[in-house]
Amino acid sequence: MKRILYFVLSAVLVAMTVGCRDDKNDAPAMVSSLNAFPGHNRALVEFATPEGAVSGRVFYGAGKFKNFTIDQSAARQKILLSQLPEGEQVIRVVTYNSAGNNSDPKGVKVTVYGTSYSSNLKNRTLLTLKRVSASSIRIDFDENKREDELGVRVFFVNLSGSNDSVFIDRSLKSVTVKDINLTKPYYFCTVYKPAPTCIDEFVTSKIDAKEASMKIFTKDDWIIAGVSDELTGKEATKLFDNNVLTDWQSKPTAMPHWVAVDMQLEKIFSGFSVVQSQDPKEVGFSKDFRFEVSNDNINWETVKEGRLKAYSYKQSFHLDKPITARYYKLTIRNAYNAGTTSAQLAEIDLFNDLKASGANGTDMPTLKNARAPFKGDGSDLFPGAGAGRMQKITDWTHSSNVKISFDITEGLFSPWCAAVWGVPAVNNGKMYQTLDLLPGLYLLKIDVGKVSSNNCAEMYGVVATGTTLPDYNVVTTATETLGQDKLSDHLGVTRTIPFTVKTPSKVTIGTVFNLRNMYPVDGTPWTYMTIRGFTLSPQ
After folding, report:
1. Phi/psi zone of residue 420: left (φ > 0), alpha (ψ -120 to 50 degrees), beta?
2. DSSP code per residue over 487-501
3. Into which CATH architecture does domain 219-351 fall?
4. Cα–Cα distance between 19 and 480 in angstroms, integer?
5. Which has the higher per-residue pLDDT, 126 or 255?
6. Do 93 and 45 meet the contact criterion of CB atoms below 8 Å apart?
7. Less CB within 10 Å around the terminal CB: N or C of the chain?
8. How far apart are CA 415 and CA 215, in angstroms?
9. Residue 13 has what pLDDT?
10. Where do the domains of the chain lie?
């Protein structure tokens, strides 16, 4: 009986094995040469046509799939998957034969691109746009480009009235667009391809090239449309040569003096900047001005009147609203030197929210750590007054005899001594900062604080040429002193020190002082004088 049962079971097992082998042999082979090419929220799946397969299924995402029918006439099958999320996707392909038997699955990974990628795309920067003829323009773009950029496409209406376009390959930076109707708008966009195998191109939003070009300035194209007068070697063209070391200077005739500039094309600008002469000499600085615009060099509109600062740094003026104009005129009405009848300026630039016509001039330097609350250096110079309370103020140079200059409880500029406690009185103490200043008429305002007791301190506010300050006993007579004021005579008020810098110079600003030991006089163990702030500005 056992032998019969063993024989039956063996026969069944052999039959099952043979059956399974037959099913496997009847199934299509696993797909080969499987590739997946990325796209914009989609992917193209390709593979060699498997022998015996009539249909298939592509699986992707979380349980999603797409059925397809095998094209027997094609050597390779292509299936497009749409609405895929951005990021890496795993795709598996299974095929079926006419009996319904399936192949083993074959998988491939692909990175799909979408909003996250496209949101970081930027248009190539338009540099210049020049009219070549009545029906052609030359467009120049910045050479800076990303590795995934293909190029720039320009869209326009041609002279036949049809929509047209031209493509600028990434290897090029300019194109001449011909047969263009310049009375119609024309646009450009930048084309990207995130990977060489990507099936889609990504494009930025279109930019109105005509409007964009109106915000780009080409000073090389500017010419003088008119000038009141000029000196030889100081012609009006020096006003826009991108060199602050050259000047336009008028003849010494009666004020006002003016210059009109033709930019050749209409431009959009919202303001202008001016740089005064870097070497004003006896002519000095121009003062009050009028700024006008025109589109025909005949009819002028005043869009700004104001006063220039009397220094050689860049100064900017914003208009009430953006202006579109081809011509502008700057009129100098008078000068800071009362007897001057000449006008002189080094450079002028226009700007808008996108561009400026140049980067001429520099900004005036400022004093550091110059207003309350001042900052200390974090030291602990007199623990007896409280841990970390007495420090030195940062960013100010101290003479060696000034040991303490900052009380953290008040946050003020405060040179301090306490001889009875081992911090000696100060004679000829100095605290200062040194700046490189261009020529100009300046004001130093010092907000004077208080003293610890009557007659305990003598302090001058001082401006001097060089890298230090004169000694206390010669402050008022030293040749290097540009300006000074006896601050200790004017407690609780703001004092103003006017001074003039005639040539580019190192200028030192600060205080020179004496702090007396008041303990023998009135029993006060400490002495200090405070300053609430320093402000440096042009006149």
Report:
1. alpha
2. GGGSTTSEEEEEEEE
3. Sandwich (2.60)
4. 110
5. 255
6. yes
7. N
8. 53
9. 32
10. 35-114, 121-213, 219-351, 383-538
